[in-house]
Amino acid sequence: MNFKHMEDFKTYTDILSRCYPMMEIRTSEDKQEMIKHRERMEAYDMVSHTAVYEDDQMLGGYISYALPMNVYEQTLPSVGVGTLAVDLPYKKRGIAKKMMINAIGKSREEGFPLMQLYPFRPDFYRKMGFGFGPQLNVFRVSPDQVPYFNEAEAVMPLNENHLEDIKRCYHDWAEDHHGACDKQEYEFRHIAAEHTHTVGCRVNGQLKGYLVYEMKQDSSFKHDLKIIDWFSNSNEAFQSLLTFLHQQKDQVSSIVFPTFDDDLAFMFNDPRHESKQLIHRIYHGTHERGTGLMYRIVNVPLFMMYIADHSFGQQTVAINFKVTDSLLNEESAHSIQFQNGKPQMSDEHLGHGISLSLDIADLSSLLMGCISLQKLLDYNKADADGNHDEIAKAIELFGKPTKPVSWTFF
Questions:
Q1: Phi, psi for residue 397 in degrees, rounded to 5
Q2: Contact between residue 223 and residue 216 where contact means Cβ atoms under 8 Å apart
Q3: CATH of 2-112, one of 2.10.10.20, 3.30.470.20, 3.40.630.30, 3.30.413.10
Q4: How far from each other are the two terminal CA atoms of the chain, in whole angstroms?
Q5: For the chain, which end, N or C, has fewer CB atoms within 10 Å of the first or last residue's CB respectively?
Q6: CB within 8 A of 150, min separation 6: which ones?
Q7: What percent of the chain lies above the pLDDT cut of 70?
Q8: Which residue windows are transmembrane per the record (predicted)?
Q9: 321 and 356 in contact (C-beta within 8 Å)?
Q10: % of the chain residues with pLDDT over 90
């Protein structure tokens, strides 16, 4: 079994059509379009296709994306792994595991401290050391439930002619949000798509927010408005986009509103889900919630070097991390002195520090701000040993995590 840079997109497309029926690669025309798409993507420097072979037979493959990422206001190079597939006759031979080990090895060699992916099964990739990322909330409300602002600026329609303004607006947003990735040219393809529509708000001539959506037919005269992308860099733009949604009440039944904002229900006077169902006793359902993006730190010292200027809090505490990685059959130790919350790596064990034992998946979630240390301890996902007061400092240090947000899909 050996790994090669992929050139045979036809065989890979055939494999995808069998492994992922949801991709709807059914006809010869579908397959030709997918082959052309893969060829177009391969032309980008940040995209790489890898295939695994046994003799001359392709068994599977995956795609790597180099994704510059905002991690605590520092630009950190990350790798996104997507469309990993093993052809059906070769399953249960550990090929997916070998492909992931290959991807981790390449990431380390090329100087990437972090990997991310969207799982087809979260439990499968958690066993491979990927920790859970941010949880996404999806509200489904009527336009009447969306706030309306009388003084809000009117939105304007946008199209591919406004692409540079849209890119600038997104990049301004990404610079202010931990976890956001730098979108590449192809990621703005929704702007020119026939089935999507875009509106935006300008403040003093500068685009400060935009909304990409599509209309889904509900009945003859009623539709659902599904939000695909939503970014705002000012309160004025936020109010304008909300007012636009409210104004669709004469023709739109429901607005499908994805968000990482855990407090969004407080924005509505009536936050109830359109189903109007009770979920427990007298608690009204407000939204659906799901897990998706997962993170894996593949080089802890390099990751900490990139975020050396970030302060997790005001505490000064030494932590000796003992990290288990069952995929690579590794156990590693990383001693870090946090000085007023800022991490400083130590080459030696810190005798005055506490010991914190956990899996690489949970360490990745912890350091990316997806979960607090107290919760990991409560859920028996981590074990702390040492002076009680020092453990309390460590818990407080990781007590109010800055949760990542990402609207990059691959």
A1: -60, -45
A2: yes
A3: 3.40.630.30
A4: 26
A5: N
A6: none
A7: 99
A8: none
A9: yes
A10: 95
